[in-house]
Write the structure tokens for this entry.
Amino acid sequence: MTLLRASDYKRMPWKNGGGETVEIAIFPPGSSVDDFDWRISMATVASDGPFSIFPGIDRTLSILEGNSMALAIAAADPLMLTVESQPLPFPADVPVNATLPDGAITDLNVMTRRSTFRHVVRRHFGLFAGKAGGNATLILAPDPLTVSTGDGKEQLGKLDGLLIEGGLPFTVEAGQNESAFFLITLERL
């Protein structure tokens, strides 16, 4: 188990230079935005514009904070995402244009190299019991929560993460208002 504190996340410019991304975790460790096998990050999107292109990458996007964002993926009709929307998977190597009808948002971005990994992102509420799947499961807490495993308990603060490997069973206890949290499963092909 690896606790990932939001205060320790790495900040860097977007690949297209249009904003800033906050890197939560990357594999292999020390890889760049050009050679990762998987990458989990957050970004504040403050203006309309195109997404960065990542050849050979699959991506899933979720809204963490803010009202809404419309995504036109590969010139299709725009899809509206809100904090209530399910995570949206799409290829990261096609043109995507974002429109912000109600102001800035913060998103959760999960990417895997199509030839080596796949991922699943699910949004859950309240009490959850499960087992780390694939090669690793990352729990991201938009609001504080507690994660229990056979190794003990971890208190996650706002936007902290917990990386669990090896099929370890765990239980998530969300705060009093049963806030949402994200389970990200990463599996090597």
Q: What stands out?
A: The CA atoms of residues 8 and 24 lie 8 Å apart. The chain is about 0% helix and 60% strand.
